[in-house]
Amino acid sequence: MPDTLTYKILHKHLIEGTLQTGSEIGIKIDQTLTQDATGTTAMLLFESMGLDRVRTELSVSYVDHNMAQFGPENHNDHLYLQSITQKVGIYHSRPGNGICHQVHLERFAKPAATLIGSDSHTPTAGGIGALAMGAGGLDVAVAMGGGPFYITAPKVIGINLTGKLPAWVSAKDVILKVLSILSTRGNVGCVAEYFGPGLQYLNVPARATITNMGAELGVTTSVFPSDQQTKAFLTAQGRADDYQPLAADPDASYDRVIDIDLTKLTPLAAAPSSPDNIVAISELADTNVHQVLIGSCTNSSYRDLMTVASILKGRTVHPQVELGIAPGSRQVINLLAANGALADLVSSGARILESSCGPCIGQGQSPGQNKVSLRTFNRNFKGRTGTPEDQVYLVSPETAAAAALTGKITDPRMLTGILNIPYPQIEDLTTVPIDDNMIQTPASPEDAPNIQVVRAPTIVTPPAAEQPPVELTGTVLLHCGDKITTDHIMPAGAFLKLRSNVPEYAKVVFNCFNEPNQPTFADRALAAKAENKHGIIVAGDSYGQGSSREHAALCPMYLGIKLVIAKTIERIHCANLINFAIVPAIFQNPADYDRIEQNDLLSVPNFRAALESSDTFTVTNKTKNFDFTCKLNLSPRDRAILLAAGKLNYTKSH
Ligand code: MIC
Ligand code: SF4
Hints:
By secondary structure, the protein is of the alpha/beta class. The chain has three domains: 5-264, 2-Layer Sandwich (Aconitase, domain 3); 268-417, Aconitase, domain 3 (2-Layer Sandwich), CATH 3.30.499; 472-653, Aconitase, domain 4 (Alpha-Beta Barrel), CATH 3.20.19.10. 29% of the residues lie in helices and 19% in strands. It has 22 helices and 27 strands. It has a seven-stranded mixed beta barrel with strand order 21-22-23-24-27-26-25, surrounded by four helices. A six-stranded mixed sheet has the order 7-6-3-4-5-20, covered by helices on one side. β3, α2 and β4 (58-62) form a beta-alpha-beta unit. α6 (171-182) packs parallel to α7 (204-213). The mean pLDDT is 97. The structure holds alpha-methylisocitric acid and iron/sulfur cluster. Iron/sulfur cluster is lined by residues 65, 99, 119, 121, 296-297, 357, 360-361, 378.
């Protein structure tokens, strides 16, 4: 049977199950990546599994998120990661070396390989033809130990690209177009696979921008074929040996095909405050802009920053605008420094930020209240910047640079007319100077026992999960709406440094819903727990969108949450809930959602029995005196994990 590219890679990595759309499969993972904000927990969990060495072909740890170092926590985490990785056989990219996805693309990602990462933008490596997926830290820890990774054999959405992008329109506009078609909801269990004659004009960094922000679709991953563009990129990185051609069979059939004529695309933006709130730049023209930020794992490649530097060269940033630029990797900064583009950026008034996630995860550069911020990033969830009243538009580097000069949202195609700026055609480099001196090689198995792991007191072993109760009696601690992201559940920004201390971090669960001078969500949860009541969360559609942070399950677990009932739950978050023994349930009749309120007392007499063998269970709302039904979309393995009190216990016993 003719295969899609996705299924070709899956076939080669299948360990358990049958490759039939919708059924659970276990696949072999070749590579893993972790970053510091999720990686510290992932490493602690790996240690709890009692293994002394990773069993993947390659595992890499990156430090790129927690870089601000207010207080000792971040540095303590860095030192722990540097030492534990050396001991257990993991390469370690030190702070300053760049953003995990950009560096992984440059130095490690390979066509046809499987990769999982404890970060939702791991699909960036799909730009090079890897099947790369985001996962919770515990799933990554299990894969590092050689265990399979479980997914639903996906539906494949084919995205047929024809034509060639016009001047001033770039990869970001392609993925924004895809988001306008598919939105951020309803794509769970799908892979977006790109094909068509338009591919030949998209280089690997452009493809990686598209697969990176594919995470916002909620798909399992996005993937491009491996072709002459891939070969050229790998050759420039001194990795020609990693190249292999890879494409879908010519007559492969897709579950759905979307046609996009690149020639017809125009500059787009994701308006506040969702990545799928897509508007044409021309419709936003003349909106005042106060901040422009360029970088993140979406748009910080050599090509992107060279484009920006060429636009800004010899000009000055508009007096009303603050411009910040965070190059994606040390390789990119070095290239810009060597060819003079860095000086052009500095001379224009750009503030050069270090090569890290920085403002993308609310580590600085919070905008003023209601001030428009244009960012080349991938997420504009409300408040993610650190300013609750933020107004973030996600745009291409071309559009960002245009606004930096004019102080208004400006269609970059106008730049030639109004400022006499020709479209910068950036040629791909055929070779780049390679310098991996900031990537620490792990100690040999012989030397590993001598490595001392540095463990500061701010690093606290994550609490253990408990078995689901036989009978559940619990309080609805929160009744929240649609599209609740993991940023709502577990804020990052100023609280990011608490990642390696669950009891402390748990204090800010659902912080955005806390009212001044009222008990917080955590206070209410702990009070219910003290009265022997279980905690329940009720939510609308797409609960747990966004990041892979397992703290969005781990911290609620610590607060006594046993059950989430939602209209739908996103893939990575759903797996994280199961991993920490919180039961993810779905309303059989979505209208029941409206009949429940915060503080209602719910009861499920045969809770544990349902987990053992039933696809549904009945909940009694004791406060409002009615019954409703919930569905359990669980595989046999999911059930076993829940009943074993979470994945760590399950894995230890297997
Ligand atoms: C994000 O973009 O939200 C993050 C920060 O990279 C997260 C990971 C985390 O919360 O540490 C992600 O996307 O998975
Ligand atoms: Fe870092 Fe932002 Fe990319 Fe997440 S989305 S990995 S915070 S740059």
